[in-house]
Amino acid sequence: MLENLLSERKTIFVESCLAQAFFVFVTGGTEACLLAVMAYDRYVAISFPLLYGQVMNTQLCVGLVCVSWGLAFVDALINILPAVNLDFCEDKTIPHFSCELSSLFPLSCSATSTNFTLLLCSSVLHFFGTLVMIVSSYTRIVSTIMKVSSTMGRSKAFSTCSSHLTTVILFYCSGFISYLLPTSGSPLEMIFSLQYSMITPMLNPLIYSLKNKEVKAAVRRMLRKYFYPLM
Question: Cα–Cα distance between 10 and 93 in angstroms, integer?
Answer without folding.
Answer: 9
